[in-house]
Write a structure and sequence with these properties.
Layout: E1 4-9, H1 14-23, H2 25-28, E2 32-35, H3 37-46, E3 52-54, H4 62-71, E4 77-81, H5 91-103, E5 107-109, H6 112-123
Helix pairs in contact: 1-3, 4-5
The structure holds 1,3-dihydroxyacetonephosphate.
Length: 129
């Protein structure tokens, strides 16, 4: 089964996430992708070949939608490029999303270095077994 991956980036990290997805576009083409609204739109613009399901923007509930998908067992990997230096009006949603990623023990990368390591494992064919 193809990997179900959620993509999110805070505003100052969006360029970095788009660059990351572009580099690994061939792998992401094999995945089922969901993203918060703005992040997903930017990913689609940069990589039109990717089929990305767009949810609401993070501050309008997108983080919570992804949290709900995690709770339902519908996400295998969360790639969330977090900006730790900017206050967010929806900080509680961000924390709740990370908490569910831990509760349900999914692979979760909160920065590019960790995301690269997860992708390296995935691209090498490791399936988490
Ligand atoms: O705010 C976000 C994550 O907390 C991301 O939402 P957008 O992708 O809509 O900017």
């Amino acid at each position: 089964m193809s990997r179900r991956i959620a993509l999110i980036a805070h505003d100052l990290k969006k360029d970095d996430l788009v660059a990351f997805v572009s580099v690994h576009a061939a792998f992401f083409e094999t995945c089922s992708l969901v993203a918060t609204g703005t992040t997903g739109s930017l990913v689609k613009a940069a990589c039109p070949q990717l089929d990305v399901t767009l949810l609401k923007s993070g501050p309008l509930g997108g983080d919570q939608q992804i949290g709900a998908l995690i709770a339902e067992g519908a996400i295998d990997i969360l790639i969330f490029f977090v900006d730790p230096l900017t206050p967010m009006p929806h900080d509680v949603d961000v924390k709740a999303l990370m908490r569910l990623g831990i509760v349900y023990d999914i692979a979760m990368a909160l920065n590019r270095a960790s995301a690269e390591m997860i992708l390296r494992s995935e691209e090498a064919g490791w399936n988490g077994a």
